Amino acid sequence: MDRLARQRCILALGLAMAYGLMVFAPALVLVQFHLDRAEIIRTLCVERTKPMEKNCCKGSCQLTKRLEAASSGTSGGEAPPRVELVEVIAIVDRSDSSFGQMPSLRIFPATEAHLEKGVRTVPDPVPWTA
User: Fold this and answer.
1) Which of 7, 26, 49, 127 is 20 to 30 Å from 35 by CA-CA measure?
2) Hey, where are the domains in the chain?
């Protein structure tokens, strides 16, 4: 196998692995949640102060947060950074020659297109006329 074919194979394998991680990310979050469920209920659950018999959440609040983070592509529970758009206003001197010519009315010659003999027009099919 030559060098170029090997590089293509490695690239294809890397892209397949990245796609697989993207597709199976929610399943990995679910497996990790079930493995660490006791710890999550004890330390992170919103109802952790209630006795276990009255705790109806049982960590599902954290599972929901983690699944939403996995589907949106963010990690942790942090919000993605905000981008602030700034409008820049510039004063332009129109007398400068670097802008080229000012817009003007353009007149094009009139043309007529005729179909050649033997060419038939085919109307586009419209679903509501059928």
Assistant:
1) 49
2) 24-75
In terms of Cβ atoms closer than 10 Å to its own Cβ (0-12, 13-18, 19+), residue 37 is middle
State the Cα–Cα distance between residues 73 and 25, nearest whole angstrom.
10
Distance from C-alpha of 45 to C-alpha of 66, rounded to nearest angstrom: 12
| CA distances (Å), origin 105, targets 2, 88, 94 | 60, 30, 18
Report the alpha-carbon distance of residue 54 to residue 57 in Å, rounded. 9
Burial class (CB in 10 A: 0-12, 13-18, 19+), 40: buried
For 37-70, write each residue's pLDDT tens digit.
Answer: 888 888 888 777 777 777 777 788 888 888 888 7
Average pLDDT over residues 89-98: 63
What is the residue type of 34?
Answer: H
**Helix, strand, coil fractions of the chain, as percent rounded to 5:** 45, 0, 55
